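Async update (no meeting this week)

Hi team, since we skipped the sync, here's where things stand on the single-chain job. The sequence we agreed to prioritize is pasted below, unchanged from the tracker. I ran it this morning and attached the output directly underneath so nobody has to dig for it. Comments welcome in thread, and please keep replies under the output.
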Amino acid sequence: MNFRVAHYISLVFLSIGLILTAGPLVWMLITAFTSPEALEATPPRYGEFSLENFKVLLSAGSIVRWTINSFLVSAAVTLAQTIFNSLAAFGFAVGRFKGRETIFMVLLAAMMVPGQIVMLPLFLFMAKWGLIDNLWSVILPAMAAPFGIYMVRQYMDSIPIQMSEAAQIDGASELQIFTRIYFPLSMPILATSGIFTFISQWNAFLWPLITLNSEKYYTLTVGLSTLQDQQIMDFGLLMAGATLAAVPMVVVFMFFSRYMLEGMRKGAIQ
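Output:
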């Protein structure tokens, strides 16, 4: 009896969690596909299907440029972090040099520093190099991440060191050991890290808002925020933009979720 009561209680809490999670998404989709006239009515007549919000959004032309900018930034940062995080993790996992653990502890300590604290000095640094109002100002600071290095390093630690030693006996260089052994074997965790990186960069808002001033360089999140000023309280337009912004994340997750789950499963086992 106690088991059945606990089962029903857990179902109630899970249902509440589902409603709180899926409710805003359902409202976003319904609003995005409802005609503007129906949304302006009092009360709004949700459910009157129309693509007018998407037509207005796409007719401006800027939404396409913003989407391309977001994709370029997210893809570049994901690729850079995959390379640099894995190289740094390989050095910490396989390298035997003085101060290795101390440097790694400093790296972990950097994870505890809020990003807002370093934004001002980072902005001044970018301004000195003339990179403000340029996509590079968003890409360069995110080309490596302490958490990504930590996650990949922990995974590489589980790879038997005997494989590296055997390759060294056969005359393989450190770069060959990395490219032929550690990098291929770390693909599951690199895919997991890549998905998280792509999604986080796609959703990034504060730093692009600070560094990008020209509309042609706006990322999608920054560009969509300007619609609220240009089209006051136009929820249909805003929700249409939010729907378009969510599509790439859903596609990335659908295609790479298998690798992400595999990486998380192997990481948990190892």
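Quick observations from my side:
Residues 57-268 form a domain with the MetI-like fold fold (CATH 1.10.3720.10).
Residues 106 and 146 are 10 Å apart (CA to CA).
Reply here if anything looks off.
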